[in-house]
Amino acid sequence: MDPQLRDEHRQLLEKNQKQLLTYGTSGFREESKYLKFVGWRVGIFIGQMSKNTTLKLGVMITASHNKIIDNGFKIVPPKGGMLSIEEEQNIEIFYKSEEIVQSETQYDTGIVYVGRDTRPSSESLCQIVLDGIKEAGAIGINLGIVTTPQCAFLVYATNLGLVNQIESNQQFFVEYFCNIFLQLIKNPIKGTLVIDGAEGVGGIWIKYFQEKLANVLTIQRINYGDEPHLLNDGCGSEFVQKEKKLPKNFVYDPTYRYASLDGDADRLVYYYFEQNKLQIIEGDRFAILFAMYIKQQLQKKPDLKLSIGIIQTAYANSASTKYITENLGIYAKYAPTGVKYLHRVAHEFDIGIYFEANGHGAVIYKDHVLSQLKEFELFELELFLKLSNQAVGDAIINILMTEFLLNKLEITIQDWLLIYQDYPALSTKLYVKNKQIIKTNYEETTLIEPIDLKQKVDEIMSKYDKSYRTCIRPSGTENVVRIHSEGPQVEIVKEIDFRINEMLKSYMEI
Ligand code: NG1
Ligand code: ZN
């Protein structure tokens, strides 16, 4: 093995205090300078995996909303979606090993598509992954700069035979979804939608949608990637949603709608600015908008029995969960943070809608659903579901679905915010060295270990009534503990957040 790669691997192990890098909330993620060895191992692993199937696989190189110096690898299985828990464990075991393990493979070769975001480290990491794939005796095809959902969709679409020769046809992604959207939209949509591309890959690809849809939807792009060194810097969905600030280059017009993507275009928030106040539409409201329409359509055909579920995380505002169950009459379920968990749970329903508060989300449906909708002549709903990216949650495609619905249901972005009122909530993070000591229940709503820490949290919370809650969990993507508090009065929520933070500062290794 290349001694340089071996060296970097040792540094990574040292940095992580001899702990394994885990295939976390969204794949492997680290500071990019430690990722060469991991990339090479990911390449070999997926190369071998591809030699056990006639279907194509994918790897996306990105660290999404994280800092520009970070990077990561997300593996795309044949149908998009996520690796199984067992595959995740296998890749974690495999990556740390320094030898080339030639496991038994069924075929002489396999095919893997490799996509990457605009980070400076992405190009060389892409080459390393391609080297690993070659080492395993498989063929790696470089997709170039694509969004995470685009990479997943291209893998999915090739395997379904929707498109051939994807290697020269990344544009297929744009054509496929624009065609469906244009079938759904009867008249031009009013107003202008300003899209903040986080200075990343989404901003680049939005241009093609802007051009193709110009007759029905007016899109204005800001932070569209002409300053790639400023990726996620003062712009993008993470900045807007977590900092509650307007992105740079914001152009105010009271009639405009605004949307921000994250660095790899799988997260989306909408917002508007009124009376000096930024009003943000988070993931919960996308789930509700989509579910309202799906339910309304299905109610036209009482004989058609399809199960619908909405999957959320502990970061969902409780007011949204209450609205889903009490007003929409739809089943709401919690999953741990990370789309990989939500996606899996969403598959339990005929139509599963999942969204994280930060705007990661999708509508996914079982294979029989489209033909049943056709049989019951629910053609518009059939098109709407076809518009949703089945491979993985997709910010650009979710914009198209949202624009269709706001127009169809004649809802303004302001009305959307008035459907229900969020409880005041506050999310903060604390940088720590030993986040892994914290363990929660499956839904991540309650801390269970360490026991003495749990007692301290319970003691703080015992001063407040049951309508207040706080969740503490280790991040899967950063060396932080996240604290999320919520309740009826904003001042009390701030007080809880402050007290929990202070207590954690003295308890954890900072
Ligand atoms: P971590 O760092 O595990 O909290 C964050 C987001 C997730 C998901 C992942 C992947 C929050 C609270 N957490 O995970 O929802 O988006 O990054 O990018 O927003
Ligand atoms: Zn992302």
UniProtKB/TrEMBL annotation:
InterPro entries reported in the protein's UniProt record: A-D-PHexomutase_a/b/a-I, A-D-PHexomutase_C, AMG1_II, AMG1_III, PAGM
Residues in Phosphoacetylglucosamine mutase AMG1 domain copies: 171-269, 282-408
Pathway it works in: Nucleotide-sugar biosynthesis; UDP-N-acetyl-alpha-D-glucosamine biosynthesis; N-acetyl-alpha-D-glucosamine 1-phosphate from alpha-D-glucosamine 6-phosphate (route I): step 2/2
Keyword list, A-Z: Phosphoprotein
Residues of the Alpha-D-phosphohexomutase alpha/beta/alpha domain: 51-98, 107-159
Source domain of life: Eukaryota
Catalysed reaction equations from the record: N-acetyl-alpha-D-glucosamine 1-phosphate = N-acetyl-D-glucosamine 6-phosphate
CDD domains: PGM3 (cd03086)
GO annotation, biological process: carbohydrate metabolic process; UDP-N-acetylglucosamine biosynthetic process
GO molecular function annotations of the record: phosphoacetylglucosamine mutase activity
Top enzyme class: isomerase
One Pfam family this sequence matches: AMG1_III
Record bears the keyword Phosphoprotein: yes
Alpha-D-phosphohexomutase C-terminal domain location: 456-500
EC number: 5.4.2.3
Full protein name: phosphoacetylglucosamine mutase
